[in-house]
Amino acid sequence: MPLVCTIMVTALVVIGCAPVISQEALKQVDQSLRFEQLLENPEAYRGRTVLLGGDIIETENLADKTLILVLQRSLGYRKKPAAEGVSQGRFIVSVPGFLDPSIYRPGRKITVVGSVVGTEVRPLGEIEYAYPLIAKRELYIWPTEESSAAGSGVHFGVGIGISL
User: Fold this and answer.
1) Can you give the pTM of this predicted structure?
2) By the 8 A CB rule, do 81 and 141 touch?
């Protein structure tokens, strides 16, 4: 019985620490390219592979693809975007096919590996904003905080538990 428990705990730890982006995709990322550089001149980095993340601002479905507008956030543990803090700007992820905007809704966090394909200029308030345009290779949408906390079936404690 102790061996079974040890195996189960080890499996849970390994699954819980697994990267959300494949090692193959991460090896292709240009680690020297900072988001500030990309934002300043996306055309100069066309074809480079980047790792970015942030909060979804809007999801827009077109005939053959979906565009996700993202507020950039720094990436932390497991490449998860920071919950808050300073953003360096915005970017757009282009994904072939349809993504449901009720799932990819504003406020959800995503992490993406993709190729820089250029710039898309759009109005933002009273200015024209040049968004770096990223073609998705891999994308991960993070569970919402309330669903990840409430959905956990693992609880530790001592005593008698009563649920009503």
Assistant:
1) 0.78
2) no
